[in-house]
Amino acid sequence: MTSGPVWHPFTQHALQPDAISIARAAGAWLEATDGRRILDAISSWWVVTHGHRHPRIIDAIKKQADALDQVIFAGFTHDPAEELAARLTQRIGLPHAFFSDSGSTAVEVALKMALGFWRNQGINRTRIIALEHAYHGDTIGTMSAGARGIFNAPYDPLLFDVIRLPFPNRGDEDKTLTALKAATADGRAAALIVEPLILGAGGMLTYAPETLRAMAAICQQSQTLFIADEVMTGFGRTGTLLACHQAGITPDILCLAKGITGGSLPLAVTLASTSIFEAHYSEDRRKTFFHSSSYTANPIACAAAVANLNVWDQEPVQERITQIAQWQREMSEGLQTNPRFSDMRLCGTIAAFDLRVADEGYLASIGPKLYDYFLSRGLLLRPLGNTIYIMPPYCITRDELSRIYDAIRDAADHFGARI
Ligand SMILES: Cc1ncc(COP(=O)(O)O)c(C=O)c1O
Q1: Which of ligand 1's atoms lies nearest the C-alpha of 102?
Q2: Which residue, among 270, 300, 258, 302, has the nearest Cα to 393 in the 3D structure?
Q3: This model's pTM is above 0.90
Q4: What is the Å distance from ligand 1's center to 100 Cα?
Q5: DSSP-derived secondary structure letter, 40
Q6: CA–CA distance from 287 to each of 205, 273, 278, 341 (Å)?
Q7: Whose CA is nearest to atom 4 of ligand 1?
Q8: Nearest protein CA to atom 9 of ligand 1, as residue
Q9: DSSP secondary-structure letter at 36?
Q10: In the chain, fewer beta carbons within 10 Å around the N or the C end?
Q11: Domains located in the chain, CATH noted
Q12: CA–centroid distance, residue 274 to ligand 1 (Å)
């Protein structure tokens, strides 16, 4: 255990003064400095895809570090960024790649591109449309697009208004689509931003590919830009490389981060259509896309991302993902009939369900107790209040996954008297 000057993210230090110090990681496992081994059942905040320290990715990082560590990316370029951009744009079908360094910045960039697209054409479209329960990051713009609540209440005076669509709960999808039609009818909306198929931090809430497709179609009809935030869903989490693939759609703007380097280094990319790029392409310098971060397209991070694409091309990643989705279906069956659980959600490699408690929601008192209980069982699971979810790296074995389900069942029994 450590305590010191570090201020940890999403951590109430008054209640959780000590962080677990991790010395090493390999595959699905973390190893603490005190020798404990912890199974990383949430891929270290949804970033690690193939497992910690995948050899191809680590080799690429070492090689690149020996050649070029960092260079300004305005007016300069380098092979790892060029190769990565070429392969991503070709694979995803959006021709322009803008680099940044986190999911939040990828989304900020997307929102700025959407606004710039309209303004540079002299068209007054400034409204952003977003989904109820959305989470797009922790910067001011991304918090504005995200749901309002305890996460961002202190910053509310700084957040801009968005048009909020009701979440497309199963059976209620028409309400969402009708609201989207209304929001786009007067031609003033700049863009709709969504997390495709599953909303992450908002509670692992799922909706159908048909609904995603219908939202994209309404946007197309009304010439509203469609932004897919695939920061969490990208790189296989939902069972396909991108969640958008399951709906057969290509958005105007697509945000990727987390799994882009296999979860090894911070990097993000915002992919954009030809028309988004062309709206910023001008001899008038005022139409420049004014955005950068110092570490934009860091060469080592780009090399890690190229290696990640090689893993996708040369290893049976899709088979692993399909296998995990199958195991999740099988193993979650027992919980579906267990009265302590409700609202089973399965989406590719992700499984989520709610523990029935009196005080539901992110601040449900059971949340920290579950977290501690799982740690005592050697598992990193970080429930969102009373919502327990499993989002494992793709190297997880059947036995390891089954161990997670055992602990979840036992936790429900353990806390049974109190729920
Ligand atoms: C859908 C989505 N968008 C954006 C973000 C923000 O990413 P980052 O934490 O890398 O800024 C997250 C993070 O969880 C996310 O799930």
Answers
A1: 10
A2: 258
A3: yes
A4: 13
A5: E
A6: 38, 17, 10, 53
A7: 136
A8: 103
A9: -
A10: N
A11: 55-314 (3.40.640.10), 316-418 (3.90.1150.10)
A12: 25
- Rounded CA-CA distance 148/406 in Å is 35
- Rounded Cα–Cα distance for residues 264 and 259 (Å): 8
For residue 284, give both structure tokens: 């008038």
* Cα-to-centroid distance, 252 and ligand 1 (Å): 19
Pocket of ligand 1 (CB under 6 A): 102-104, 107, 135-137, 195, 200-201, 229, 231-232, 257
Quote the CA–CA distance of 253 and 4 in Å, as a whole number: 41
pLDDT tens series, the chain, 419 aa: 556 899 999 999 999 879 999 999 999 999 999 999 999 999 999 999 999 999 999 999 999 999 999 999 999 999 999 999 999 999 999 999 999 999 999 999 999 999 999 999 999 999 999 999 999 999 999 999 999 999 999 999 999 999 999 999 999 999 999 999 999 999 999 999 999 999 999 999 999 999 999 999 999 999 999 999 999 999 999 999 999 999 999 999 999 999 999 999 999 999 999 999 999 999 999 999 999 999 999 999 999 999 999 999 999 999 999 999 999 999 999 999 999 999 999 999 999 999 999 888 888 999 999 999 999 999 999 999 999 999 999 999 999 999 999 999 999 999 874 55
């091309």: which residue's tokens? Answer: 313
Residue 45 CA: which ligand 1 atom is closest? 14
Which of these, 92, 27, 23, lies nearest to 245 by C-alpha position? 92
